[in-house]
Write a structure and sequence with these properties.
The protein has 489 residues and is an alpha/beta fold. It contains 21 helices and 14 strands. The strands form three sheets. The chain has a ten-stranded mixed sheet with strand order 5-6-4-3-7-1-8-13-2-14, with helices on both faces. A two-stranded antiparallel ribbon has the order 9-12. The longest helix is centred in the middle third of the chain and has 24 residues.
């Protein structure tokens, strides 16, 4: 896809990548091994690591996104195509936090980011106030470039786990300051409210502070694509909070003009990071998969998972020209465990019902944003028809109205709000249902391809991924205790 102005396009991106591989990789060319992969670097070390995280992705989400792509586009997802390769390593990962079998995103990312389990809500801070060096600091100290790319606020729990040290994930203004203090090279996502002086509680202008340190600032898609890639330092915040869901994005001209996709952000980040001859460490998060799962929002879930998968595709194309890059793909925990249920006593897989997802135009979240306490049954039916291309019944619409007004109390109280009711109504037409609205204790999917991917074992603990990444790059972390920062002790 071409972009206007001085923006990057895919052909130029790969051409630049090929040149960089010659300049930075000792003249190695990406020798294709059959349909996949490239030659491994002579020393077996990864020049860089890209860690992909689909936040809150249950195994059913991975499967349904793949089903949707196959049935709509006649192709498999990039993630599932990885599983057909002979050069990958795949396993399950135990994501428990220090204090719970069911982790939150902060403790989950921190386990990768500091090589230890911490309590829920903590970001690289132990239960007694111990503050652990985040993994991006190791990469930076080794001369590597660093990047955080996400569809959440850039200061949210998952990116913070790689690049911040705070006792509470809610300290997002402090996290923004730490990103500047640490000097991470590329930071892209949402969350302008944590940088703009009129939004921050302390009134500090973090944009001015980043500019003073030589960063370029992008606040729209066009600004991102038109920036001079010669400057390795870039801060991009494209929405006050989390960026809009993909399904709403692709059906809005305004959003498409303002907000880049995760794939586009990944592509831009790689173009900047490639300038560092020592390589890089980057985390890429599809963060709104988790939010859609919390809301039992099928359209939000699957279209954001597909957008995440497209970002994986960008990295795989890059890796073809840069075979000394390790790509890891995982999730931090399951959430709500959605799945496609069979119909007709198991004799009908529900394909025709599931295919209705192809015609969705808006998320459930968008629908709720158009309704208020005075909305009628007809209003509710009309908006859901616009969003889903499905005519729900008067009884279903009335049930949604009562649920929104708090006039219905289910026996299972955790499934009591209107978001769940929307998910239940939609299940009548798509065959997809949910077990709840919160995180789960599932062992999660993990795979790796590239140098160092042998560190991905059939079953590992979350904190071991820290070692996998640093070992792959040959970065020393033996003296971590001496490098621990003491800010809040």
């Amino acid at each position: 896809t071409k972009h206007g102005g001085n923006g990057l396009n895919r052909r130029a991106f790969l051409k630049t990548g090929a040149a960089s591989a010659l300049l930075l990789g000792g003249g190695r060319r990406a020798a294709r091994a059959g349909a996949y992969g490239g030659s491994q670097p002579a020393n077996g070390k990864a020049r860089g690591v890209i860690c992909f995280v689909s936040d809150g992705m249950s195994s059913g989400t991975l499967a349904m996104a793949d089903h949707l792509l196959q049935r709509r586009d006649g192709k498999k997802s990039n993630w599932m195509k990885l599983y057909e390769r002979t050069d990958i390593h795949r396993g399950l990962m135990d994501m428990a936090s220090l204090d719970s079998l069911v982790t939150d995103s902060a403790a989950a990312s921190a386990s990768w980011g500091c090589g230890r389990r911490v309590n829920g809500g903590s970001v690289n801070v132990g239960p007694d106030g111990e503050e652990y060096t985040p993994i991006l600091k190791y990469a930076k100290d080794a001369g590597k470039a660093t990047a955080l790319v996400t569809t959440t606020e850039v200061t949210h729990a998952t990116p913070a786990g790689f690049g911040s040290v705070v006792p509470s994930r809610g300290m997002q203004e402090k996290i923004a300051e730490q990103y500047l203090d640490f000097g991470w090279d590329v930071i892209l996502g949402g969350g302008s409210q944590h940088f703009a002086p009129d939004e921050r509680e302390d009134g500090r202008d973090m944009y001015a502070a980043f500019l003073d340190e030589g960063y370029e600032i992008a606040e729209t898609r066009s600004e991102l694509m038109d920036k001079d890639p010669g400057n390795p330092k870039l801060l991009g915040t494209f929405w006050p909070g989390h960026v809009p869901y993909t399904l709403d994005h692709i059906n809005s001209t305004r959003l498409k003009e303002r907000v880049p996709t995760l794939a586009e952000m990944t592509e831009v980040a790689l173009s900047r990071l490639s300038q560092n001859p020592n390589g890089f460490l980057m985390q890429v998060e599809g963060g709104r998969v988790d939010h859609a799962a919390h809301g039992n929002d099928l359209g939000g879930l699957l279209y954001d998972q597909i957008a995440f998968d497209e970002a994986i595709g960008v990295a795989l194309e890059y890796q073809e020209q840069h075979p000394d890059i390790l790509i890891l793909v995982t999730t931090d925990h399951g959430n709500a465990n959605p799945g496609l249920n069979s119909h007709g006593g198991g004799h009908n897989g529900g394909e025709a019902d599931f295919d209705r997802v192809m015609h969705f135009k808006q998320t459930n979240n968008w629908v709720r944003g158009q309704l208020d306490e005075d909305s009628s049954v007809e209003d509710i039916k009309e908006l859901h028809a616009k969003a889903w291309d499905i005519e729900i019944t008067d009884e279903e619409a009335e049930g949604l109205r009562k649920r929104a007004l708090g006039e219905y109390d289910p026996l299972y109280h955790r499934m009591g709000d209107v978001r769940v009711a929307q998910g239940h109504v939609l299940a009548n037409y798509t065959g997809v249902n949910w077990v709840g609205t919160q995180h789960t204790s599932d062992y999660v999917e993990l795979c790796g391809v590239g140098p160092g991917s042998h560190g991905v074992k059939p079953f590992i603990k979350n904190y071991e991924l820290f070692n996998v990444m640093l070992d792959a790059m040959g970065v020393d972390y033996a003296h971590e205790a001496a490098r621990t920062r003491r800010v809040y002790a």
